[in-house]
Specification:
It is built from six helices and eleven strands. By secondary structure, it is of the alpha+beta class. It has an eight-stranded antiparallel barrel with strand order 1-6-5-4-3-7-8-10, surrounded by five helices.
Length: 224
């Protein structure tokens, strides 16, 4: 199912104000482990040798997709292969958990197919062969997430957004990082199926917001 995905840039002060308000009416995300309920997201994005995913985003292509391998809190026990489909402000995400063999195969660019592979892995291998997909950039940030389960709504705050430049080895995250978000700003994202609940809309309307056009992926590619 495609979902609405709205992105904004807000000040850190306004983010703290909104977090306090949402904390009363929404629940915390299950990935939270830190004292402030945030968690770390690390994503390795793939792109073609001609950087098609980057230019499609920059040119505003209405329908596009990109693959990434994602892990949480630098924990390699649970790693996901995801394909994010985008149609204007609507998104649809496919995801499958990778085992050790599958992860090693995809990171080593061994694109042999196995009968036991889930459909998304097979789809990735086919697209890799057709479009020469390569590891492109690693993006990392701290996320604080709220959920409203009755209507499947997520409100997230992404902070300390960073890139590892040209380093794309997901198994070695000790390389130096460069922060790409301004120190006094936070990325706010609101994701919902059909209608944003009025109480969330009203809370967001109490703070100044600027719609975010450039994604974390494209921003990271720009400063590579």
């Amino acid at each position: 199912m495609y979902r609405h995905e709205l992105k904004y840039v807000i000040s850190r002060q306004d983010a703290d104000k909104l977090k306090n308000a949402l904390n009363i009416v929404m629940s915390r995300d299950r990935h939270s482990i830190h004292q402030d309920y945030s968690y770390i997201i690390t994503s390795l994005y793939f792109d073609t040798i001609d950087h098609d995913a980057f230019y499609e985003k920059m040119n505003g292509t209405r329908m596009r997709e990109k693959y990434r391998i994602r892990l949480y809190n630098h924990n390699y026990d649970r790693i996901l292969l995801e394909c994010k489909h985008k149609h204007e402000n609507m998104t649809y995400k496919q995801a499958v958990e990778l085992n050790e063999e599958q992860l090693s195969r995809l990171l080593s660019e061994d694109m042999s197919m196995h009968e036991s592979d889930p459909e998304l892995i097979t789809q990735f291998i086919i697209d890799h062969r057709l479009h020469y997909l390569k590891p492109s950039v690693i993006v990392e940030y701290d996320r604080l997430a709220f959920v409203y389960e009755p209507l499947d709504v997520r409100v997230t705050f992404d902070d300390h957004v960073a890139t590892y430049h040209y380093h794309t080895d997901l198994r070695n995250l000790k390389a130096s990082k460069a922060f790409i978000s301004e120190l006094d700003t936070v990325v706010l994202e609101v994701k919902f199926n059909t209608i944003m609940p009025d109480f969330i809309k009203e809370l967001i309307s109490t703070i100044p917001t600027t719609r975010q056009a450039i994604s974390k992926f494209t921003h990271s590619k720009i400063i590579q």
